[in-house]
Amino acid sequence: MSDGTIDHHDQDLRVHDPKSAAAGVTGVRVSMQRAIGQMGLKNTAKTLLKLNQADGFDCMSCAWPDPDPENRHTAEFCENGAKAVAEEATKKRATPDFFARHSIAELDSHDEHWLGQQGRITHPMVKRPGATHYEPIEWDDALAIVADNLNGLDSPDEAVFYTSGRASNEAAFTYQLFARALGTNNMPDCSNMCHESTSIALAESIGIGKASVTMRDVYEADLILIAGQNPGTNHPRMLSALEIAKRRGAKIIAVNPLREAGLHNFRNPQVPRGIIGKGTEIADLHLPIRLNGDLALFQALGSLLVEWDALDHEFIDRHTTGFHEWAQHVAAVDWTTVEKATGLSRAQITEAAEMIRASDKTIYCWAMGLTQHRNAVATIKEVCNVAFARGDIGKPGAGLFPIRGHSNVQGDRTMGIWERVPDTFLDSLQAEFGFDPPREHGHDTVNSVRAMRDGKAHVFMGLGGNFVLAAPDTAVTAKALASTRLTVQVSTKLNRSHLVCGDTALILPTLGRTEKDVRGGKEQFISVEDSVCAVHASRGVLEPASPHLRSETAILCGIAEATLGDRHGIDWAAMRDDYDVARDHISRVVAGCEEYTAKVDRPGGFVLPHPPRDSRTFETRSGSAEFVCSPIDVLQVPEGHILLQTLRSHDQFNTTIYGFSDRYRGIEGGRRVVFMHPDDIAHLGFTAGDMVDLSTRWDDDDIDRVAPDFRIVPYDTPRGSAAAYYPETNPLVPLDSTATGSNCPTSKSIIISLTPARQDRTITGSYDSQASTGADEGHKARPQPTHLS
User: What is the pTM of this model?
Assistant: First the structure.
């Protein structure tokens, strides 16, 4: 695996002023340039006009919900959605000749952007034991390799079945059915690395691990509190919804270490004020919180609400338990501790609490900024506590709103992709298919890496995604994958996980969301679920990139049939050739999915039941919404160290790198940067533009983890809090550093030290206060460092 040193793009890195507004004309221009450059003019029009439409296909990027069909724009997509479509529908092809020309070692020497730009994989490929190259293989032979390896295991628990959020509901259902029919619950997924803390916290606090709001609630809210989320990059269509809410009078609080452009101002390119006007100011209040300070913040908010008796006593009395203990707990909050943990003043926190008190309908939004900490589960429960205190659940315009980051990661979980799925789901599987599925919990992502590392798992299968770079502790994860007998990647394009492979490795190329799927003589459709429990159909519009591609569902049913034969009497061929058959099974197994095919194929689909939202019913252990008391745990950072969060650039989606422009934060031409407060830079003995190595060491092991060659960039961020892009910084996240209760990697609170980078390399480029990709977006002044050479 490549060592992650500087590539030619970082040698050309430039830093300019961060933007003070998101989208605008530049967003349209970049969208069209990327789309036309990758797909051509005809396919750009054909795809983007059907993107997120009721009769089109669902974006493979974020899980932001769609408006009602009658309220959708002709261009119902954002810049990063257009980039995602362009990446999938590219005209470039990675053919067998390509793999013949490039050895695996040579491919591994390139960066993620280069790998992704080689185009769609056109044929099944195999790396045989001892081989240096991938070579083409027939589908039947590839399926036989998978079947032989799985059937040769001493136990089904020696296999790991990973799922990316891109999988459809039909594929997810057949995948989990196959794994459980084989005999294992080893079903890690990308949620284990992002919103697992949400799933655990909400299930224990309200009885269901999903958002309790609808899109209409967002529009009708009096106040929207957004914590640990950057919608301008990660969920850009959310800005349109926030704009509607603002125009209707809503206030918005942004809780984020960085002052992100999208939470400052939105220039909607679909309305005149977004093109020639000043746009829409988004955040009425920005709280620049220190990393890992959110638990203390929400306890302090609760303390003030209790002190003021700004409480919904009727809701508390009728629908909650544990209030009096919680009220006593937060009444005793220590404000010195709160200010130290948050980096905020009591006056700032009081201003936020007064906004909550003045609101009759508040929505609480969050994402990875809250979920990837040691105390993440406790923090999200504290968000719930504040919502309970105000009665902000189960009423219009209010609720809890975790924003899912991947297109169908929530649908995967609904369909049974979970290593610890409830017994009620397994009971339904047993009733439908006549076999007793395994009941022992399986491996999540972190434990799957441990199992492969320790020689307890020998086959790894990835349904989409880029496991080796998405998982924490990259070097440990890579070594674990490379120790397996077989790795199988169901993919559309080349990524690092194809190059860190087992003794035998397979690449099984699949259809994308953009492509027509014809099986059994008819055009099939798939279905997905978004962040507000809405489920709808998705139909591709392009001809497949290669006649050798198969859909995810067809690939999975083929593997299941080759491996299990007629075991349990499951008709895999029927589900492979007609997805209605799979949906019929879903309608009888998955709660809330009765008459699934008919409901999902309606324009706009249908919304799954949600007891707290629908009837203020809470299926918790107590039968009520549960207030929970948690101690404020201030993360101690030793002198000479700093706390790092990993985050996305504006030019990427998870581990897929679209390009090298994070124009909102002022970065062009590279990615290996670390954002720091100017005073922290000086305190640690560095100057702006210095090249440093980032390193961390976990107390429980003796591994020195280093991410080399990062350029220091001064930024408007709280003292003691730094930020850098992943996956470049994933090597710094110790495998054993996880959230209590959810085992989610702590990618937002990594204690690091900085040391000067090696001196035997030449770095060129400059800081340029005038560099810009669009004057329409505005600038935010900050201290300017001197020229570097």
Answer: 0.94
